[in-house]
């Protein structure tokens, strides 16, 4: 499934770049818009001739509120339509990143009972020319990993945003492997960048060194008094 997404990217990045939304680099907040399906499928675009994703209510037809899933799951979740559903959104970071930044890619993914239907969430790191310079993904959560239980399970991966990343592509895909419905499930999708650690200025380092020296001197005097 990951190979299939990469093949899609190779064929579609130039077209997808035309749908870029713009945002200043934001730290500590979710950069995926409507990752929880509460706004329907707003901000998610269907790729080419593939089937669409859909926003459905938790309940008997999909995942019951009592079944495994996010503690704060709201009322909606994503699932697929057709045999293979692909949706994406693009985000322009306002210029290439100049240093490696920590990120987390996370979400709740799952499926129905013993069926092999599944979901995958993929982020593509794109350079100025639209070429992919890195990627990360979570999922799919297989029926064996779910122990043939209907529901969603949390997945997360951590990494470093490649230097030179100018935009991000978020891709959500659901694959039907059995039954009539596409029961690849997803909810609470998130991508979060962390602010770089602050390096003290030389003057601050000098003050810190002086303070530590005075503290050590005071302790020595106290020990001899």
What does this structure look like?
By secondary structure, the protein is α+β, with helices and mostly antiparallel strands. 17% of the residues lie in helices and 35% in strands. It has two helices and eleven strands; from the N terminus they run αβββββββββββα. Strands 1, 2, 5, 7, 8 and 10 form a six-stranded mixed β-sheet that branches. A five-stranded antiparallel β-sheet has the order 3-4-11-6-9, with no helix packed on it. A hairpin with a 5-residue loop joins strand 7 and strand 8. The mean pLDDT is 86.
Keywords:
11 strands; 225 residues; alpha+beta; single chain; six-stranded mixed beta sheet
Which shape, going by the Cα principal axes?
Answer: globular
In DSSP terms (H or I, runs of 4 or more residues), the helix count works out at 2
- By helix and strand content, what is the structural category? alpha+beta
**What order do the SSEs take from the amino end to the carboxyl end, as H and E?**
HEEEEEEEEEEEH
First and last CA, distance: 73 Å
- Describe the sheet with the most strands: 6 strands, mixed
- Averaging pLDDT over every residue, what do you get? 86
Instruction: Classify the beta-strand content into a percent band.
Output: 35-45%
The low-confidence parts are none
Number of strands: 11
Helix content: 10-25%
Cα gyration radius (Å): 23 Å
